[in-house]
Design a protein that fits this description.
Layout (H helix, E strand, L loop, with lengths): L1 H9 L2 H33 L10 E4 L10 E3 L1 H25 L8 E3 L6 E3 L13
Antiparallel strand pairs: 1-2, 3-4
Length: 131
């Protein structure tokens, strides 16, 4: 068990698991935001359109059973695209806030090939010339 614990703590597996859990919760909140907060006023502004009900019927329901209807529900797809854009934007903002790039290690350029090398290097790692 200690080996598994060490694996979780040494790798990014724990961070990935936490990210998936938070992402799932964020997705639920954003879906509610899109479906319950954003789309009703947008639909009302566009003349009372309910995007969740927009569809192109390919085969009407038979026998009064709505489950037999074949339709392309492009309104639901439109809602999903908006939700995706919001989630992607929020995740991008969070990652910009939390993930900082490490400062580049100091280096010196090779006078011949201009490749960066460690400060204490005596030979270029690219062209093997003395620097």
């Amino acid at each position: 068990m200690s080996g598994f614990q060490a694996f979780l703590l040494k790798t990014n597996a724990l961070a990935l698991a936490i990210g998936v859990i938070i992402g799932t919760a964020l997705g639920t909140v954003v879906n509610s935001l899109v479906n319950d907060i954003l789309m009703p006023p947008i639909g009302m502004a566009l003349g009372g359109i309910d995007f969740a009900q927009l569809k192109t019927v390919l085969k009407p329901a038979t026998g009064g059973d709505p489950a037999t209807e074949v339709a392309i529900r492009w309104g639901l797809f439109f809602n999903a695209v908006i939700a995706f854009i919001i989630v992607a934007f929020v995740v991008w903002q969070i990652s910009r806030m939390l993930i900082k790039e490490e400062a580049a290690a100091p280096s010196k350029a090779c006078p011949f090939c201009k490749e960066p090398n460690a400060i204490d290097a005596s030979k270029c790692r690219a062209c093997a010339s003395a620097i």
